[in-house]
Amino acid sequence: MDYIGNNKAAWEEAFDHKQDGWGEENYKRLLNEDLPFFCEDMAAELRSMDFKGKSAAQFCCNNGRELLSLMQLGAESGTGFDIAENIIAQASETAEKAGISNCRFVSCNILDIDEKYHNSFDFILFTIGAITWFEDLKPLFQKVSDCLKPGGILLIHDFHPVMNMLPMPGEPEFDREHLNRVVYSYFRNEPWIENEGMGYMSEQYESKTFTSFSHTMSAIINAASDSQMRIVRLKEFDYDIGLTEVYDGKGFPLSYILTAEKCR
Q1: Single pTM value for the model
Q2: How far, in Å, are 38, 99, 117, 127, 133 from residue 27 at the CA level?
Q3: InterPro entries in the record, alphabetically (predicted)?
Q4: One-character DSSP codes across 169-181
């Protein structure tokens, strides 16, 4: 199954069905706000790091809004990679409108990033939902390691794997009166299959197939460790960062920030 090729087609179709104006005014927030598009905890994590004169990349950067925000911290250059060509085009347009000339965007399969980018970046960033689009994290994190300079930093800000156990509002299994009930296995092996568009971006429609995957926290940590990176820090939070607020503060780990360093 060429799930990556199918996901590319589904993402590009979703952008063609995007809600009116989606992403078109991101440049205004980039011009007028401090680190827009990052939550408070992630913004604090980024501010604690020294980006001045450094090179940064975002894998699965979508329309580039987070990487472009990151450039406020003084990075010398930024490179965003994403598989969807039309979404990447919007990222480039946003950079131009915001006057950010030291950030470029490349459309490609992340696993096929050209070798010319190996040993190129001081920081590589993944954000919400990005790693779910890969069935096997080992080749993904090996590509991260290949592209990082020795001593370079991987940052992941994402949904916590426990979120995959919880039914979302709108699903038949969801019960607002029993929010402590888990429905799905933490160790789920089957992919998630969706054919209703991409909710945060597009209207609902009968779409091409999106295929994503669950990963346990141990799978994430081990894949990074097996790719010549050491885990520096893991922070977990009891609030969601994009799907729903109904489970916030209920005792579940719902999001996390992971920092890893490529071995020197």
Answers
A1: 0.96
A2: 15, 9, 27, 19, 27
A3: Methyltranfer_dom, SAM-dependent_MTases_sf
A4: TTSTT--TT-TT-
pLDDT of the residue at 108: 97
190, two tokens: 């089957």
Q: 94 with 27: CB under 8 angstroms? A: yes
Radius of gyration of the chain (CA): 18
Residues 142-153 have a mean pLDDT of: 98
CA dihedral 22, 28, 29, 35 (to 10 degrees): 120
* Domain locations along the chain: 3-262
Burial of 118 (0-12, 13-18, 19+ CB in 10 A): middle
Residues 80-100 pLDDT 10s? 999 999 999 999 999 999 999
| Spatial contact of 96 and 76, defined as CB atoms under 8 Å apart | no
Residue 15 has pLDDT above 90, yes or no: yes
Per-residue buried b or exposed e for 138-164, using 16+ beta carbons within 10 Å of the residue's own CB:
eebbbbbbbbbbeebbbbbbbbbbbbb
Q: How far apart are CA 134 and CA 104, in angstroms?
A: 23
Asked if residue 28 has pLDDT above 90, the reply is yes
Q: What share of the chain is helix, strand, coil (3-state, %, to 5)?
A: 35, 20, 45
Cα separation of 239 and 242, whole Å?
A: 9
The CATH architecture to which 3-262 belongs is 3-Layer(aba) Sandwich (3.40)
Q: State both tokens at 212.
A: 């994503």
- Cα 24 to Cα 246: distance, rounded to the nearest angstrom: 29
